[in-house]
């Protein structure tokens, strides 16, 4: 059983399990593919344990994951802490009454939804995703969590792209990134 990786180890683990994919999903985008990290059992466990250790088990009541790679992280954190997981989904996927919020993408618009009864009033919600880029997805998700009655207890990504304004856009909310490039 690992004693737990330190912050620098976790950053290195993330860095060494990213595959850069140029021009995906469209020309000019350098896609940061983190599926190799998900696929490596011991590394995935270190990363999940590192996220839980950073926030402290007991500092959140439920974990929300942003579709779709956020689901992988959220489910593992929830299982590791004995908590439940809530999906924040692309519009039109959730079957019952939802809160919905639209946001600007580089080209066009996208929308996210969460069930209106996803959280108990005041429930402390840890929100997770794989990559923070412009911050539109995260900002919209954190707003939805609050509209649905949750309190944002923390927001974690594996990778933050610091040449984009995600962190500034989320301020004064804190961003926890295992690796910032
Ligand atoms: P944004 O709303 O611009 O912060 O984009 C964040 C969402 O898009 C996250 O759910 C990421 O999974 C995905 N994403 C954005 N840019 C990238 C990228 N360069 N590589 C991988 N995923 C990305």
From TrEMBL:
EC id: 2.4.2.7
Gene: apt_1
Function: Catalyzes a salvage reaction resulting in the formation of AMP, that is energically less costly than de novo synthesis.
Species of the source: Phytohabitans houttuyneae
Keywords attached to this entry: Cytoplasm, Glycosyltransferase, Purine salvage, Transferase
Phosphoribosyltransferase domain span: 55-159
Family, as annotated: Belongs to the purine/pyrimidine phosphoribosyltransferase family.
Intracellular or extracellular location(s): Cytoplasm
Signal peptide: none
GO cellular component: cytoplasm
Protein known as: Adenine phosphoribosyltransferase
Catalytic function, reaction form: AMP + diphosphate = 5-phospho-alpha-D-ribose 1-diphosphate + adenine
Pathway it works in: Purine metabolism; AMP biosynthesis via salvage pathway; AMP from adenine: step 1/1
UniProt GO molecular function: adenine binding; adenine phosphoribosyltransferase activity; AMP binding
Main location: cytoplasm
Subunit structure, as described in the record: Homodimer.
HAMAP family given in the database record: Aden_phosphoribosyltr
Any GO BP annotation: adenine salvage
């Amino acid at each position: 059983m690992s004693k737990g990786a330190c912050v620098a180890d976790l950053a290195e683990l993330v860095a060494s399990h990213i595959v850069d994919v140029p021009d995906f999903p469209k020309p000019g985008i350098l896609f940061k593919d983190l599926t190799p990290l998900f696929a490596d059992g011991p590394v995935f466990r270190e990363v999940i344990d590192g996220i839980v250790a950073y926030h402290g088990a007991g500092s959140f009541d439920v974990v929300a994951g942003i579709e779709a790679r956020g689901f992988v992280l959220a489910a593992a954190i929830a299982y590791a802490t004995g908590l439940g997981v809530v999906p924040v989904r692309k519009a039109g996927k959730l079957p019952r009454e939802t809160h919905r919020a639209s946001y600007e993408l580089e080209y066009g618009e996208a929308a996210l939804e969460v069930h209106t009864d996803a959280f108990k009033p005041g429930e402390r919600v840890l929100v997770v995703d794989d990559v923070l880029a412009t911050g539109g997805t995260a900002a919209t998700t954190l707003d939805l969590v609050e509209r649905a009655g949750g309190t944002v207890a923390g927001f974690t990504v594996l990778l933050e792209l610091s040449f984009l304004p995600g962190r500034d856009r989320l301020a004064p909310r804190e961003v926890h990134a295992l690796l910032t490039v």
